[in-house]
Write a structure and sequence with these properties.
Largest sheet: 6 strands, mixed
Strand content: 15-25%
Order of helices and strands: EHEHEHEHHEHEHEHEHEHHEH
Radius of gyration: 19 Å
Number of strands: 10
Bound molecules: pyridoxal-5'-phosphate
Length: 333
């Protein structure tokens, strides 16, 4: 099935730029590093969830839903972008925020994305750490339905086969931008969490006949679990697109050496990466996803995994507002 046949609402400013990072590349002394600016998708400070929401909220509208329900960790970028998309479309938005990261102080609980969720008009419900946040959200959805509402459930991170289509679009965009500039991309690096971004990218490259290796840098779970999660969603997305057979094996790679003590917990390598991107390129990363993914990129280049003359694309998936929630990680005292 062609991508254009799926319902879609315009929310993002596309295409996002594909830019070289010459000072960072020179500093690292390895491959030519480019950045795909999905932090600049344009909706309420942007980020990767906006592309997914173009398909998810079109589906909600097509089903005649009157409320959108989703969930995430306290500083969820996905929740903030969902709240913004709902504001834009005039849909009420109910969100569950899970206190997944232990006591991080007043900025973590009230600044960054939390400040923006409220500003964007979402109704926020707080939850203690739970076993299965999607299951918790689905039972909340059932309560709303019992009250006569027609809610639309968006899973954590917007990562199902509908949301993943947003990153099939992104892969096509990268292919076109590379073609226009005569670039051959040797490798793509991206932060991976709920799997929709990586699964969509892999489906998008592969279905376009452009096998580009994509490495996901894990932010929350060990490599084997992450690979299995991406592969499962890749298969679902593949059949949703009505592509022939199963996707080829071996397309999904992940690196779990950069998580540190856990999801959303700062590491020295993350702080170094955020500082390097800021000072060498004027690019703002985030402490939870892209900072750790960039730490992975830097370490893999230093290890010699990628060589001079190669071209590497780092997908910046957004998250910048969380910087304001993690002030303590970047400021001494
Ligand atoms: C959600 C998110 C990711 C991870 O994307 P998934 O599709 O959930 O794997 C990466 N970076 C940022 C900034 C995010 O908010």
């Amino acid at each position: 099935m062609q991508l254009s046949a799926f319902p879609r609402v315009a929310l993002a400013a596309l295409p996002t730029p594909l830019e070289p990072l010459p000072r960072l590349s020179r500093h690292l002394g390895g491959p030519d590093v480019y950045i795909k600016r999905d932090d600049n998708t344009g909706l309420a400070i942007g980020g990767n969830k906006t592309r997914k929401l173009e398909f998810l909220l079109a589906d909600a509208i097509e089903r005649g839903c009157d409320t959108v329900v989703t969930a995430g960790a306290t500083q969820s970028n996905h929740v903030r972008q969902t709240a913004a998309a709902c504001a834009r479309l005039g849909l009420p938005c109910e969100v569950l925020l899970e206190r997944r990261v232990a006591d991080k102080g007043v900025d973590y609980d009230h600044n960054g994305n939390v400040l923006l969720d409220a500003l964007l008009g979402a109704t926020v419900h707080h939850r203690p750490p739970v076993e299965d946040l999607d299951a918790e959200t689905e039972s909340f959805v059932a309560e709303l339905a019992a009250d006569g509402r027609n809610p639309y459930f968006v899973p954590v991170g917007g990562s199902n086969r509908v949301g993943a289509l947003g990153y099939v679009v992104c892969a096509r965009e990268i292919i076109n931008q590379a073609f226009d500039r005569g670039l051959t991309i040797d490798h793509v690096i991206v932060a991976t969490g709920s799997a929709g971004t990586q699964a969509g990218l892999v489906a998008g490259f592969e279905s376009a006949g452009a096998t580009v290796p994509v490495t996901g840098v894990c932010v929350s779970r060990p490599e084997a679990l992450m690979v299995a999660k991406v592969e499962a969603l890749l298969r679902e997305t593949w059949s949703f697109l009505e592509l022939r057979g199963d996707p080829p094996g071996g397309l999904v790679a992940a690196e779990d050496g950069f998580i540190g003590p856990g999801y959303g917990v700062p590491t020295d390598a993350m702080v170094e990466a955020v500082n390097l991107f800021a000072r060498l390129e004027g690019v703002l990363l985030d402490p939870v996803y892209t900072g750790k993914a960039a730490a992975g990129l830097i370490a893999l280049i230093r290890e010699g995994r990628f060589r001079q003359g190669e071209t590497l694309v780092f997908v910046h998936t957004g998250g910048t507002p969380a910087l304001f929630a993690y002030r303590g990680a970047f400021q001494a005292g």
